[in-house]
Amino acid sequence: MSIRSVQLTRRQTRRVAALDRPRFGWKKTTWIWIFLLPTTVLYGIYTIYPIIASYWYSLVEWNGFDADQKFVGLSNYRTVFADPLFWNSFKVTLLFMLLVVPARVLLTLLLAIVLNSPKLPLIGVLRSAFFIPVVTTTAIIGVVMRFVLDPSSGPVNSILTKLGAGGIDFLGNQHLALPTAAVLYIWKFFGVTMIYWLAALQTIPYELYEAARIDGAGPGQVFRHITVPMLRPFLIIITVLTVEETFHNFDLMYTLTGGGPYFHTEIIEIYIYRWAFGASIPQLGQASAAAVFFGLLVAVVGALQLWGVYAGRRLRGEQR
Amino acid sequence: MTAVVERTDRQRRMLRRLPWWTAAICLVGIAALWIFPFLWMLSASLKDNMEMFTGGLKLWPSKFVWDNYARAWNDAHFGRYLINTVVVTLITVVLVTIRCATAGYVLARYKFRGSKIFLGVLVATLFVPTGYTIIPVVKISMQLGLIDSLGGMILALSGGAYVSAILIYYGYFRQIPRELEEAAVVDGAGFVRTFFSVMLPLAMPVTATVAVLTFITTWNAFFLPLVFTFSRPDLRTVSVGMQAFVGETATDWSGMAAAGVISIVPVVVLFIFLQRYFVEGISGAVKS
Fold this sequence. Notes:
A: mainly alpha, MetI-like fold, B: mainly alpha, 2 domains, 0% strand, flat
């Protein structure tokens, strides 16, 4: 009882009013469900059903053409787990994440801090310029970059040759392909994390900076004692958001390298695609088993996300 | 005397701003490098194929070859791909906006049986990647006879994800004071009227944000359009068309650059005019 009343006082009363409404008639209930109908149908068919159906598909042997689906139990999982290329794709996915996330999170923070200072001229133009790659079509960037980095005719290598460095096969070299893709990916999605940080920075009241400056704090001190502690709660959220985004990387990888050379850039999404759509005889069961595993991986990170949000809230709560 | 004081004052102010201007100029340099690939693509789309190989990173073409655009538009079918993309994107934007606005509204304003579960399921599936759902999506589209059609592609694109759009509406409708709704009811407006003539107009900024985000996501979608058009090349969107272009005519690089420009310019223009809404939509993820 007492806990509940404390919660009530902390929330806005009108919110509670909206929630604790008395029961309403069947007419209104009908309208409520009519309003939810489009989402229920579309989201149900194209997101919820596939999530559940993947589990079923992962237990059958099926090529997608025939009507018959033979139940094979966990044998698809056994096949997938015994496939070194599956573990390779798992490794590539994680390695790519490790290459991309620190750069995206930390470098964007630096840029965001600079682009957040009200005294900087041309701020709007600069922000837009750094953001433009985000809105462009990833698949098209992948195709164009394949030409730009082409070892024999691409412009980058023609410059390198003129400088005497010789042709470098950025995407064909098995050691260079993944880092090259990582650099392109960072460039492409830099702006998203930058906006995250700008949003976080805007929660710091400007008076706080003013007060510190009047007290005689230098820029380094302001950064250490105001910016960093105020941003710490956001670090968790922004990192996890960025991690989740790196899982959605099919467009760039597929158009840039197609998973090559020799599977060195084959992320899990391409592995799934290869078995489900790329093979001459599709192995949907095996692809689904890999997909289920992938879904679990994303879910684990999602759970970390929730935990991160709570931890962040707690940190912010302590500061107050 | 005063004039001298003023001048030194101004000079001092200029001097104080000097580091900022230096920083800005450095950043402009970095920003120019940042968007260089797009500038290069634009210039490559106007060079002939020979100059593309020999010209390196030079931006100004020695001769403007507009024929590249004609080839991309007609021979590589980018005219048709562009129409496909526009149709798919516009209808998807309308569908997504309507379904997210209505869902966000009732979830925010009414407590009914199942509302918590509904919201919980949405939040739990916030990050489901396309790579995970793609096989059942294709399978069920085949069963419904919706594969190999723009309609099926549109439905699949509108049904996937966009939980964040519902959450943006949810957060917004939650803040609207109760009195507004009551006033509408007193004026004789029913459930539907209250939503369409009071609530939805109020949520205009949110609608703009959701529409712009959805537009760009759909325009750039690749995975779903790819698997939906395997046997119907005439239904390709620009992103899929670009991938196919390189596979089919491996030598026409300047035509490819022209096709890329045709495909990317609409989103960039949209972004430049509506970037406020776009930025708001993205920063919403952090704030909420």
